[in-house]
Design brief:
The chain has helices at 3-10, 39-49, 73-83, 97-105, 115-125, 133-155; strands at residues 17-20, 53-56, 87-89, 108-111. Helix content is 46%, strand content 9%. The longest helix is centred in the last third of the chain and has 23 residues, at 133-155. A four-stranded parallel β-sheet has the order 1-2-3-4.
Length: 158
């Protein structure tokens, strides 16, 4: 698909991210190959399409993990240096503060962050009895806001 197709879709209005991922984190590629994004493929993809940001596979995915994610920091650096576009991180569940800081140093500029925020909201209301739904929602929202504040501090290197 050419950049012009994307431009028509967006109406030349703005930011154009794209994703270059194959397979699944549990099963790998269809033929047993690595599911991690190849830096050279990423460079070619960005050059042909002309995107503004690239979501790629380097050790994270959306949702909860069975084990601690193992991030390929060198891959992030290689993709960033070969594409010269911001890298998008697929989900940050289970990622340590140090690993967040490291991938941000290496070119990640957007983190898809939801699962642990939602978990914080669920934990805040778990086991409590509410007579009104809005009270439960307010407690969940408060916990979620605190979780996001912490994440923003980490992502902002504060």
């Amino acid at each position: 698909m050419k950049k012009q197709t994307f431009a028509l879709f967006l109406g030349n209005r703005g930011f154009m991210p794209a994703e270059l991922i194959e397979g699944s984190r549990e099963g790998g590629g269809a033929d047993g190959s690595s599911i991690y994004t190849d830096p050279d493929e990423a460079a070619g993809f960005v050059k042909i399409i002309g995107i503004d940001a690239l979501a790629c596979a380097f050790g994270t995915a959306h949702g909860f993990y069975k084990d601690t994610p193992k991030l390929d920091f060198e891959r992030v650096s290689n993709i960033y240096s070969k594409t010269d576009v911001p890298i998008v991180m697929h989900g940050g569940s289970g990622v340590s503060e140090e690993d967040y800081r490291e991938v941000i140093k290496r070119g990640v500029r957007k983190v898809n962050y939801y699962t642990y925020m939602a978990k914080a909201g669920g934990e805040a209301i778990s086991g409590k009895n509410y007579s009104q739904l809005h009270d439960a929602l307010l407690d969940a929202e408060k916990a979620m806001r605190e979780n996001v504040k912490t994440a923003i501090k980490i992502f902002s290197n504060l």
